[in-house]
Amino acid sequence: MVSFFATRAGFPSLKKKGRSDSFRYPGPKQIKLDQGNSRLFLPELVWLRQRTSRDALGVR
What we know:
The protein has one helix spanning about 1-5, and strands at about 30-35, 40, 45-50.
């Protein structure tokens, strides 16, 4: 934004909520899934609430 007002760059791009909100997490062996309580454990982020439309298959 500062570069825009200093005329070093063009207009800032507008971003919509809900578009491209995904992310990747390395180390899938460290992720724990608690389907009964709708929770997901990611190391360094602790337990997170999740919403799923169906149960995950192949989960230990």
